[in-house]
Write a structure and sequence with these properties.
Number of domains: 1
Strand content: over 45%
Shape: elongated
Order of helices and strands: HEEEEEEEE
Strand order of the largest sheet: 3-2-5-4
Helix content: 10-25%
Largest sheet: 4 strands, antiparallel
Distance between the termini: 42 Å
Number of strands: 8
Number of helices: 1
Length: 145
């Protein structure tokens, strides 16, 4: 009875060793952490009317937004230009008209853009014995680095 258990145990260990071949090697191992980084930003919003340079002078409602790095003050106005296709009643055809002007600041807000970054923990690197498994190619041959 003991012999049967020893044979089964030996066969199991042999098959485990065959499927898990590899070698031990010393490698540099380091710990890593994920940290959040906050970048301050300022959002600026502008709205108002801009005007065409054509005669008769026409108005168009426009909006614009900008984003500035850091917590700063937004400029009081923002220059914009828009091109629009408009029907010309006098000539009976469509034409492109350019509108331009300064839009006044309507709101500003401060916020943070948050990004994550993976960093190596300072002073965490050390030499450790690690198991390097052998790999198998498509024909079933084992090879180890």
């Amino acid at each position: 009875m003991k012999y049967r258990y020893l044979c089964a145990l030996s066969a199991g260990l042999f098959s485990l060793g065959a499927s898990a071949s590899g070698y031990w090697d010393f490698r540099t191992v380091c710990d890593y952490e994920t940290v959040e980084i906050q970048h301050p930003v300022t959002h600026c919003a502008y709205a108002g009317q801009i005007y065409s340079n054509n005669r008769p002078r026409q108005a168009m409602q426009a909006t614009a937004q900008s984003r500035l790095d850091g917590h700063t003050s937004c400029p009081a106005s923002h220059y914009v230009t828009r091109r629009s296709k408009i029907w010309n009643d006098n000539e009976g055809r469509w034409e492109f008209v350019t509108f331009e002007g300064q839009l006044p600041l309507t709101s500003q807000s401060h916020d943070y853009d948050i990004t994550t970054q993976r960093r190596q923990v300072e002073g965490s690197c050390r030499e450790e014995a690690v198991w390097i498994p052998c790999e198998m190619d498509t024909e079933g041959n084992r090879f180890c680095d």
